[in-house]
């Protein structure tokens, strides 16, 4: 049950707590009054509701997800919790990824994200030969069906060894362009990686596409494909947005070397997305051995260099991450604990809202007058109250109106796993 009943039409949320940074003001949390009218944030207007200091956040932007993999755990559990176990299991499960299977699981995940208060999502789509012709049209249908509720983007996903100018990857790149997507790639150490990336940037530039990489998702300190991406970007002058995710190996490298790489990332102007929940699940896992190194990338050092940093959900209930629900408050709570965002800069909330919106090219996120009244209201008056509980009784407003937050029942998908 909602903790506060709100009126319809024009009204004012009196005495709410908001992050000062989202109003471009100095400091941490401040108390304000927010008017709501015609689906937008306005000056105080209409009947006032005393909110007793509860926290108001803008609806979230989830910049790195895998809607096509989501919720396959009942039929495709990771046998040992490792990265290779996940990779192998998902490849085997591709045989089940019909249009109906992908559509139903992805729509289920989107209903969860919407109920939790997310307004924009970038998903990666596994795009091996054959699967790309199935998943991309399904994505386009979902993007149209969800327009006005969740803005959707998609990036193709495949290993860097697929990039050959005369190879099958050209077809995938053309599909991405046809459906207005993002050209994506997984990078790992291999001979000839830089010339391959030069080709990749050329493919993207020819099609006027932004790019998104899975990078160095390993605890091997010798994995430095992030440097190669930066070098290829600087050498080619590629000028579309670039997002890079994971960057786990940085946490295992010599400090001097890792920080030198970050200087290169700043120079190249890359956007970084950290996926701490998935990385903590997979990295340094060995049966019977407690993990020592957890693979969380160097977000504080990045932010200090002006590198835009976002946090995102990544996988949900699949072999790469057995849990999750596309709930960005869960991501916020866990990232704060895992990456020690507390006792730090007061504007980390941007990493879950305005920063990923800018990095991905979604509509800007703000609490300023004139912004859409797409809001998440939590019964918490400060950060410790917000982080201490899952906020399962939050209120979500879209266009100024309270939405139904009923989550879909997992039983809906049971027949996909028979």
From TrEMBL:
Its EC number is 3.5.4.1. Keywords: Hydrolase. The keyword Hydrolase applies. One of its GO terms (molecular function) is cytosine deaminase activity. One of its GO terms (biological process) is cytosine catabolic process. Pfam families: Amidohydro_3. SUPFAM superfamilies: Composite domain of metallo-dependent hydrolases, Metallo-dependent hydrolases. Gene3D superfamilies: Metal-dependent hydrolases, Urease, subunit C, domain 1. InterPro entries: Amidohydro_3, Metal-dep_hydrolase_composite, Metal_Hydrolase, Metallo-hydrolase_Enzymes. Residues 187-402 form the Amidohydrolase domain. It comes from the Bacteria. This is Cytosine deaminase. It comes from Tritonibacter litoralis.
């Amino acid at each position: 049950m909602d903790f506060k009943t709100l009126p319809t039409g024009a009204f004012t949320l009196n005495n709410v707590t908001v992050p000062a940074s989202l109003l471009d003001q100095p400091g941490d949390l401040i108390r304000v009054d927010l008017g709501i009218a015609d689906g937008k944030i306005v000056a105080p207007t209409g009947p006032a509701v005393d909110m007793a200091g509860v926290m108001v956040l803008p609806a979230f932007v989830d910049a790195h997800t895998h809607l096509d993999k989501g919720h396959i755990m009942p039929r495709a559990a990771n046998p040992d919790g490792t990265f290779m176990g996940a990779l192998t299991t998902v490849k085997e499960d591709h045989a089940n990824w019909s249009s109906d299977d992908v559509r139903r699981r992805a729509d289920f995940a989107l209903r969860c994200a919407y109920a939790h208060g997310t307004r924009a999502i970038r998903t990666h789509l596994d795009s091996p030969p054959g699967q790309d012709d199935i998943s991309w049209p399904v994505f386009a249908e979902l993007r149209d069906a969800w327009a006005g509720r969740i803005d959707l983007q998609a990036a193709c996903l495949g290993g860097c060894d697929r990039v050959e100018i005369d190879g099958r990857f050209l077809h995938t790149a053309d599909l991405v362009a046809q459906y207005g997507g993002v050209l994506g790639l997984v990078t790992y150490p291999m001979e000839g990686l830089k010339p391959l990336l030069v080709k990749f940037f050329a493919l993207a530039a020819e099609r006027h596409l932004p790019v998104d990489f899975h990078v160095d998702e390993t605890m091997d300190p010798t994995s430095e494909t992030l440097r190669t991406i930066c070098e290829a970007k600087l050498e080619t002058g590629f000028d579309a947005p670039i997002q890079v995710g994971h960057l786990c190996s940085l946490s295992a490298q010599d400090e001097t070397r890792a920080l030198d790489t970050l200087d290169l990332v700043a120079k190249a102007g890359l956007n970084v997305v950290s996926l701490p929940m998935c990385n903590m699940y997979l990295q340094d896992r060995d049966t019977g051995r407690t993990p020592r190194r957890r693979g969380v990338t160097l977000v504080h050092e990045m932010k200090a260099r002006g590198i835009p940093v976002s946090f995102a959900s990544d996988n949900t209930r699949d072999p790469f991450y057995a849990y999750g629900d596309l709930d960005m408050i869960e991501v916020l709570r866990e990232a704060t604990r895992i990456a020690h965002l507390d006792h730090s800069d007061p504007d980390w909330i941007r990493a879950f809202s305005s920063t990923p919106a800018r990095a991905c090219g979604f509509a800007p996120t703000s609490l300023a007058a004139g912004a859409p009244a797409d809001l998440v209201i939590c019964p918490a008056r400060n950060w410790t109250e917000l982080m201490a509980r899952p906020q399962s009784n939050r209120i979500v407003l879209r266009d100024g109106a309270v939405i139904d937050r009923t989550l879909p029942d997992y039983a809906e998908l049971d027949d996909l796993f028979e």
